[in-house]
Every structure is written in structure tokens, then in C-alpha cells.
């Protein structure tokens, strides 16, 4: 169950990171409210995952899911550039996440 909590926590990290873009410095009520709720839910699920998982593994996977998802969302939603070097670095993050999961 801890891994499920961790995966959903990472997905919610993507949601609140994207939400930050839409809050325009927390000047828009609804995007700000949704962003704060996603942040709170993400941290709560991370805390629940930490009951069973090692801190170093859980935190790196949580932030890695958020980083990968945010890069993909930036490309899809905001037209951000994905060059070969950037894709290579993203692949390294993914390999690290998989490696940590396999060794935990």
C-alpha cells in the first residue's frame, strides 16, 4: 500500500507544480485553492508512504515522479523545448527511480 501512496503522492506533486503556473503568483482564487489542496494531499500521501518506506527512497521517487511529470506537462501544455540532452537527463532520472524501486 505504501508504494501506491507514493505513486499518487508523486502524481499530485505534478498537479500542484502545474497548478503553480495557473495561480499567477497566487492571485487567482480557484487555481490557487486547487494547487494548495493538491500540495496538501501530496504531502499527506508521502507521509503515509514513509511509514513503511525508507526516507531516502521515498523522497527521491516522489520528487522524481514530480520532475518527470512536470517536464512532460511543460512540453505538452506549455510548448517547452525538449532537446536531446534534456531527454537524456530525463532518462537518467527515470533509470534512478526504477533502480531505487528495484533495490527497495
From TrEMBL:
Protein name in UniProt: Guanidinium exporter
> Where is the protein situated, by its record's location annotation?
Cell membrane
TM helices/strands, residue ranges: 33-50, 57-78, 84-103
On whether Iron-sulfur is a keyword of this UniProt record, the answer is no
Protein origin, superkingdom = Bacteria
Spell out the InterPro entries in the cross-references: EmrE-like (IPR037185), Small_drug/metabolite_transptr (IPR000390), Small_multidrug_res (IPR045324)
Topological relation to the membrane, as annotated? Multi-pass membrane protein
- Give the family this protein belongs to, as stated in its UniProt record: Belongs to the drug/metabolite transporter (DMT) superfamily. Small multidrug resistance (SMR) (TC 2.A.7.1) family. Gdx/SugE subfamily.
**What's in the keyword line of the UniProt record?**
Cell membrane, Membrane, Transmembrane, Transmembrane helix, Transport
